[in-house]
Design goal:
Elements: E1 4-9, H1 14-24, E2 28-29, E3 38-39, E4 44-49, H2 51-60, E5 65-69, H3 70-75, E6 81-86, E7 96-103, E8 118-121, H4 124-133, E9 139-142, E10 157-162, H5 166-170, E11 173-182, E12 184-188, H6 190-193, H7 196-215, E13 218-226, H8 230-236, E14 244-247, E15 253-261, H9 265-274, E16 278-283
Parallel strand pairs: 1-4, 1-5, 8-9, 8-10
Antiparallel strand pairs: 2-3, 5-12, 6-12, 7-10, 7-11, 13-15, 13-16, 14-15
Length: about 290
C-alpha cells in the first residue's frame, strides 16, 4: 500500500495541529515518549519533529511533506515547495511575528541604533538579512531559548517570536520593530510532488484541513420563518452563496438555513427572533469546503 510520509510539529503547535486534523477526519494516538503517532488512515506515515528542523527533513526526503512554520523554512533556506499557507498558531489564528525588542529603559528606537551592538535570537539568518537590508552592522548571537532574559545583560536587544506580546511586556521589554511575520505552512519535497499518488493524497489532505480551519470561524444557523417575514429575514442573513429555504408542512412557514460568522450570532439571533423566526438552532461545524 502506498503511503504519504508527513511530518507534524512537536511542541507548541502540536495540540492545535492534532485538533485541526481531528476536525478534518484524522485521529492520532501517541504515547508521551513516542515521535511516531498512529492514525486512523493507513495511508499516512506520521513523524513528529521540532518545527525548527522540519524543512530540512522535507528537503532531504525523510518525509514527503510537513506542517511547519514559514519562518523556519526561510531561516533554514530549505529548497522545498510551499504548498499552502494555513494561518493558525498556538493561541490564535493570526500570523506570529519575530520582533526586535529592547529593555523598556533602552535608548534604542530603531534598527539604525543597533550599529555595533549585540542581538540575541534563534533566527540568526533572518536577523542578518533584516540588518543587511538596513545597512546595519551588528553582532547576531544564537539563543538556545529563554531569549527574553538575554537583554540587557547578555545582549543589547533581542529578536523573539510573539503572538500577543504579553511575554515581552512581562519581561519589561519594548517592541521596536517587526523583523518578519510567519504563518503555519504545508511544505513538500519537490520529488514527492512529482509522484501522482502522493500529490493527490497531499492535495486531499490540504483541502480537508483548509475546510476545518474555515469551519472554526463559522456556524450553521437553522430556523423556521413565517413566509410573510421571509424577505426581511433573508435581507439580514449573510451566507456563502444564499440562504437555503425549504417548504414546511404548514404553507405559511418555511425552513431557512445558512452559514454565518461565529461572532455575528450574538446580534443576529435576537434580530431574527424579532422578525418572527422560531426554533433557531446554532450548530458548530467540522469542515466547510467552498
Amino acid at each position: 500500500m502506498p503511503e504519504l510520509k508527513i511530518g507534524l510539529p512537536k511542541g507548541s503547535l502540536q495540540e492545535s495541529t492534532f485538533a485541526l486534523f481531528r476536525a478534518a477526519g484524522w485521529d492520532f494516538s501517541i504515547s508521551s515518549r513516542s515521535y511516531y503517532p498512529t492514525s486512523n488512515d493507513p495511508e499516512l506515515n506520521v513523524m513528529l519533529a521540532r518545527p525548527q528542523e522540519m524543512s530540512r527533513y522535507v528537503e532531504r526526503g525523510v518525509v514527503d511533506a510537513a506542517i511547519t512554520g514559514l519562518d523556519w523554512t526561510l531561516e533554514n533556506e530549505s529548497d522545498v515547495e510551499i504548498v499552502e499557507r494555513l494561518v493558525y498558531a498556538k493561541a490564535t489564528r493570526n500570523p506570529v511575528r519575530w520582533v526586535l525588542a529592547v529593555p523598556e529603559t533602552s535608548g534604542i528606537q530603531s534598527a539604525k541604533d543597533l550599529e555595533g551592538m549585540t542581538i540575541s535570537t534563534e533566527v540568526v539568518n533572518l536577523v542578518r538579512k533584516y540588518l543587511d537590508a538596513r545597512g546595519v552592522k551588528a553582532k547576531v548571537e544564537f539563543s538556545h531559548g529563554a531569549t527574553e532574559v538575554k537583554a540587557p545583560y547578555l545582549a543589547d536587544a533581542i529578536v523573539d517570536l510573539t503572538e500577543t506580546g504579553s511575554s515581552l511586556s512581562a519581561n519589561r521589554l519594548r517592541i521596536v520593530d517587526t523583523v518578519a511575520e510567519s504563518v503555519t505552512v504545508v511544505i513538500a519535497n519537490r520529488c514527492s510532488l512529482r509522484d501522482k499518488w502522493r500529490m493527490e493524497k497531499l492535495s486531499a489532505l490540504v483541502l480537508m484541513i483548509k475546510g476545518a480551519l474555515l469551519a472554526k470561524e463559522k456556524v450553521l444557523l437553522k430556523l423556521n420563518a413565517p413566509k410573510s417575514g421571509l424577505p426581511e429575514i433573508i435581507k439580514i442573513l449573510p451566507s456563502l452563496q444564499s440562504p437555503t429555504v425549504n417548504a414546511l408542512s404548514d404553507e405559511n412557514w418555511v425552513a431557512v438555513e445558512t452559514i454565518v460568522d461565529t461572532g455575528t450570532t450574538r446580534t443576529l439571533i435576537p434580530q431574527l427572533k424579532a422578525l418572527g423566526a422560531q426554533g433557531i438552532l446554532e450548530l458548530s461545524l467540522n469542515a466547510i469546503i467552498p
